[in-house]
Amino acid sequence: GAVVSQHPSWVICKSGTSVKIECRSLDFQATTMFWYRQFPKQSLMLMATSNEGSKATYEQGVEKDKFLINHASLTLSTLTVTSAHPEDSSFYICSARGQGADTGELFFGEGSRLTV
Amino acid sequence: QQPVQSPQAVILREGEDAVINCSSSKALYSVHWYRQKHGEAPVFLMILLKGGEQKGHDKISASFNEKKQQSSLYLTASQLSYSGTYFCGTEIQGHSGAGSYQLTFGKGTKLSVIP
Question: Residue A4, CB half-sphere, CA atoms under 13 Å: how many?
Fold first, then answer.
């Protein structure tokens, strides 16, 4: 099946620094990728929809300047948590649907655990 | 828009059956089911696209009642490996009748299978 890879799988950073998380579709082209955030024992909350070559669409309540998303190619989307603070500590998961797929399963990355 | 899942948690003995329900207040285009083990990413189980559709593989199946905007996941003869948190993800209908392409996940149902 299709593979989505996330990197890093975990990161510890100091307050005030920025952290970049990469999401790659390894064997298919993903025009759309989704970034989710998951707190312990809670559901996956959609943060934003990343569209290749255009601006990301953020969900209500998600700060665009805080969580920068770049989808520069059909196989790579990045999420940068800027000026991270302890409340940003969470499990961040990306997912992708293939190009041309009107509907289909989401392929999830392995997730990135951020500890600030 | 978040779908409502029930029950929140269930404990089964090996071999017992369970049903997990997912309901939405919006007209749905598709329903997805995923299972997540602790510390891991969710793993796809199945998609249901049409009203009244029922799918399944092995001893896990699901139904989708489009009119009621509900889906149910059926786990029969449960195995220890079934333990995990099950999430339904709903895709609402867009204006054109096609899917919105985004999935919104329920809060999850924690399933524990014990020997």
Answer: 31
DSSP characters for A32-90?
Answer: EEEEEEE-TTS-EEEEEEEETTS--EEPTT--TTTEEEEEEETTEEEEEE-S--GGG-E
Where residue B19 falls among pLDDT bands split at 50, 70, 90? very high
Contact A102 B87 (CB under 8 A): no
**CA dihedral for A115, A10, A22, A103, sign (positive or negative):** negative
Mutation choice for B interface testing from A32, A44, A46 by most B CBs within 10 A? A44
Search chain B and give the residue with CA nearest A44: B105
Q: Express each pLDDT in A35-73 by its tens digit.
A: 999 988 889 999 999 888 888 999 999 999 999 999 888
Distance CA B34, CA A94 (A): 15
CA distance B42 to chain A (A): 7
Alpha-carbon distance of B22 to B47, in angstroms, equals 13
Gyration radius of chain B's alpha carbons? 14
d(CA A86, CA A83): 10
Which stretches does DSSP call E strand in B50-114? Answer: 54-57, 60-65, 70-75, 84-92, 104-105, 109-114
